Inverse folding.
């Protein structure tokens, strides 16, 4: 055997060994991550978002108007507790665990892109980082579950802005601009998540991250009613508007899926980053409500009758509390489904 051939053989052997060790280490890290998530229950939950995630937490007086009044339950945007409370009240652990909720009804991901008067999730997550650093939060020993659920309010603004600019929905430029604005939302979410995950003080205990998509908005009652109103009762145009918001919400959800897939390939912490196929769950509930213990999915429990709010007789059988927010019964279903992906 010549020296040159021998050297090539040695090089191949070392390369094969290095690859084997790399794969082995990757498998060990994967196994360690799975073992950690299965043997250590979450010690606390952190929530960022809008009305679907707002548990009526204490807030500055200037934001007191974001708390709902009766018949809404305790300031929440539902008739009872929300999914995050179901998780922390016993589903995630054998005992009740702390929830640090920063969500505000009406919020968006970034007020520079779609403006509201509520703290956006950038402000919410920055406040969380600040409170972790100054030691005001007792998050336990971990893992800490972080959840972002934001998007409906942004899609509403992007959708209505496009319709007002081009009621006929025939201008390519308008549609392209709307899609661009949706993609900007994902970019802002990515930067927020990246910042929280890069903070040592946040991640000095195990941390996991869950990004939740929004429902297919063409199936949400408020959008169905609003499409008819914007179309001035033109049925064909209203259908076009609903198809448009369906495309926008699906594009947003696809962006979240893509973001999570990319982040999962570049983990900088020991925890996981996941999402959940909320579109499929939502459509399944509407298609076969009886499988989830529900009955009425095409009208809200809370309605206006002669100018007065009227609550239905059996709210636990309804999907919608009002025209856009789920009942507490649906929140419980969502929490149970989220639990499966959290513990997977």
């Amino acid at each position: 055997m010549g020296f040159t051939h021998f050297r090539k053989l040695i090089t191949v052997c070392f390369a094969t060994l290095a690859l084997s060790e790399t794969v082995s280490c990757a498998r060990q890290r994967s196994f360690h991550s799975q073992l950690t998530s299965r043997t250590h229950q979450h010690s606390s939950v952190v929530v960022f978002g809008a009305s679907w995630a707002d548990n009526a937490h204490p807030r500055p007086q200037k934001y007191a108007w974001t708390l709902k009044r009766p018949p809404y339950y305790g300031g929440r945007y539902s008739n009872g507790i929300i999914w995050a409370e179901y998780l922390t009240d016993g589903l995630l652990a054998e005992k009740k665990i702390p929830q640090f909720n920063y969500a505000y009804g009406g919020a968006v991901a970034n007020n520079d892109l779609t403006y509201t008067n509520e703290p956006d999730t950038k402000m919410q997550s920055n406040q969380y980082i600040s409170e972790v650093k100054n030691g005001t939060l007792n998050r336990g020993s971990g893992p800490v579950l972080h959840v972002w659920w934001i998007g409906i309010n942004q899609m509403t603004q992007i959708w209505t802005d496009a319709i007002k600019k081009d009621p006929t929905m025939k201008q390519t430029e308008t549609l392209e601009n709307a899609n661009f604005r949706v993609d900007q939302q994902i970019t802002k979410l990515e930067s927020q998540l990246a910042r929280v995950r890069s903070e040592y003080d946040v991640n000095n205990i195990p941390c996991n991250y869950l990004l939740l998509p929004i429902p297919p908005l063409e199936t949400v009652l408020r959008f169905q009613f609003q499409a008819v109103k914007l179309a001035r009762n033109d049925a064909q145009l209203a259908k076009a508007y609903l198809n448009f918001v369906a495309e926008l919400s699906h594009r947003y959800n696809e962006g979240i899926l893509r973001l999570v897939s990319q982040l999962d390939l570049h983990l900088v912490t020991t925890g996981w980053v996941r999402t959940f196929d909320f579109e499929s769950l939502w459509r399944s509930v509407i298609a076969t409500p009886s499988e989830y213990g529900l009955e009425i999915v095409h009208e809200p429990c809370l309605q206006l009758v002669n100018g007065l709010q009227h609550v239905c007789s059996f709210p636990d059988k309804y999907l919608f509390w009002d025209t856009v927010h789920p009942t507490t019964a649906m929140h419980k279903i969502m929490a149970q489904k989220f639990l499966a992906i959290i513990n997977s």
In short: The mean pLDDT is 89. The chain has one domain: 44-342. The first helix runs from residue 3 to 39.
